[in-house]
Amino acid sequence: MQSTSQGGSEPILFTRGVPAVEALPNQLISTCLQAVLEGPDGRSILQYGHNGGYLPLRRLLSEQYAVSADQLLVGNGSLHLQDLLSALLIKPGDVVLVEQPSYDRAIKTFRRRGAKVIGIPLEHDGVNLQALEKALAQQTPAFMYIVPDFQNPAGVTTSAAKRQALVDLAARHNFWLVEDIPYRTLRYKGESIPLLRDLDDRHTITVSSFSKLISPALRVGYLVAPVELVKKLTALAEDTTLAPVLPTQAAVVEFHKRGYFASNLESLKQLYAPRLQAIVQALKTYLPNVAFAEPEGGFFVSITLPEQNDYSDLLARAKQAGLILTDGRGFFADPLDGSKNHEHLGENFVRLPFCALTPEQIEEGVRRLAAVVA
Amino acid sequence: MQSTSQGGSEPILFTRGVPAVEALPNQLISTCLQAVLEGPDGRSILQYGHNGGYLPLRRLLSEQYAVSADQLLVGNGSLHLQDLLSALLIKPGDVVLVEQPSYDRAIKTFRRRGAKVIGIPLEHDGVNLQALEKALAQQTPAFMYIVPDFQNPAGVTTSAAKRQALVDLAARHNFWLVEDIPYRTLRYKGESIPLLRDLDDRHTITVSSFSKLISPALRVGYLVAPVELVKKLTALAEDTTLAPVLPTQAAVVEFHKRGYFASNLESLKQLYAPRLQAIVQALKTYLPNVAFAEPEGGFFVSITLPEQNDYSDLLARAKQAGLILTDGRGFFADPLDGSKNHEHLGENFVRLPFCALTPEQIEEGVRRLAAVVA
């Protein structure tokens, strides 16, 4: 087979944050779907359902979050729910605050729905609070979007102290905190930190999904929020997608009932933990002068290359070296301080999703990256 | 069990156009899901997929419609596709034309996306062409939405001559015709009439789904359109729902491969044809003076009660008589001629979905209706 890279081997993809394909539990899901489709509800889960989602799934989640089932909306993946949230909450002229950098598709969604999206610099323990207070002094946002655990893209976990500061600010300035926690249970070491909703549920909207924990193609995401907000979002969901995909939602319930969720989560951690270790080790070995937040879980490590170099053609040079990267600029929203050279934001930012690569691929990938940026 | 109606029996629901629950092929779908999840693609259909939809499904549909696979977009049910279409095509100040009456959720979707929705009176063989030409002389619409076969709600099938007139007008005035054909293959008698796309595919967007042909909860709808439009809609789909629900889409392919689609369609027709016959017979028996379009397929018959009576409390009176009806006003868009007493449009319009009721329930339901309106 002819090589497509200078290194004489297959290109290595540090692009999308996808699960390892070998970790997708196709046999278990097949078993669950068969059980629910051939069980007593087999026909009713093929009929039009209520767009709040499959009630047993909402009940299961409501127990996990200690809320009522009418505080739960199950949607077609968490991006779908973010889009619905944006449609409902963003009015013309509104600002949405995000961590800087943040999840590229979230930034894009908030912009498409009409918001000016402003990034608050993310430090190794969460956003810079002085910058956030400065932003809040200028304008109260429609909401602030946070990925508090193993952030996408930076891998940062917001500290307990900063979480408390965030809910205090949300209460004082009266805005919504949207906490997106798809990676939260994929913790490979250290101790879990309370959710924003655990600290103050009045201003918190929690969004998550089973994409990283069972399978992305099931498209089962959910949202926890106050009842009145869930009611409005449910009506909007019904207006746009009419009814839920009940069979996959029922399969998720069965996956829990049979104990597969717990065992699958354990398998995922055992598969991914060495991959995190491999990327941290490789970065320390091959890029010893580049500082980065060392994550304790999730899918991502990210690095910021030294600013003095010109990384405008980073992607092209990486590709030549057999390395496929995502354009770092997509993770950057508008800066609060307009003075910075705006269009170059993120040019030297590299997200490194590590879960879908073997430790060997990870080491080789970082080696190639070091050769490109050296 | 205590009765909830004057008639001393269970209420009869003439509300949503849903399949008969006994017609939902749970065993066959279970078999298909098991086959695809335990087959060679079992893991890849659990991964993030391309939002055009599962490629083998797009290929299967592209053969049916004699188009290329890149003219196909598979979405989360056809309302989802109508929402995407509306987001892309409707600009501020735009008009969308619909048949009067039309599908209530479509009207609502076009309005939510900012259109002024104008209804062109529907006759027993399709829209009134004089009224349509008058509307087109006033303003070229973003698109016209048509349900050409066994229309929802009226049961009308647009004649071949009017279909030709529609594509001619679309070509002359340069607007999109959106033909929504979820019921088309559920023809219980008579001969099929060419699609709008068969007459002229340049201005036609065809939307359909498997909700009525396999199961609504699979949420598999699709759209056929020119490549450039499909590209834009696919990008928008990716921005809003990120990835397709591949397992259900793969199950639909398997359902065809195994010959289940053909046999299931035959079973549906055998189940539904007597129900259509029952409702037509009951209407002729119990409401002999009310004219209606006699459908040759689909899910709906509708009647318009004599205008001289006051039907403002029709739903309430029907409920008392053990009959649950849908508010007819939802099926009516703005009239082209503003002179008509607008807010009363549809008050005397009754949609009667007949597929999910037994012939006995249908007869009893129409008997109750006749008692209410007599």
From TrEMBL, chains A, B:
CDD domains: AAT_like (cd00609). Residues 34-369 form the Aminotransferase class I/classII large domain. Its cofactor is pyridoxal 5'-phosphate. The lineage of its organism: Bacteria, Bacillati, Chloroflexota, Ktedonobacteria, Ktedonobacterales. It comes from Ktedonosporobacter rubrisoli. InterPro entries: Aminotransferase_I/II_large, Class-I_PLP-dep_aminotransf, PyrdxlP-dep_Trfase, PyrdxlP-dep_Trfase_major, PyrdxlP-dep_Trfase_small. GO terms for molecular function: pyridoxal phosphate binding; transaminase activity. PANTHER family: AMINOTRANSFERASE, KYNURENINE_ALPHA-AMINOADIPATE AMINOTRANSFERASE, MITOCHONDRIAL. This is PLP-dependent aminotransferase family protein. Keywords: Aminotransferase, Pyridoxal phosphate, Transferase. One of its GO terms (biological process) is alpha-amino acid metabolic process.
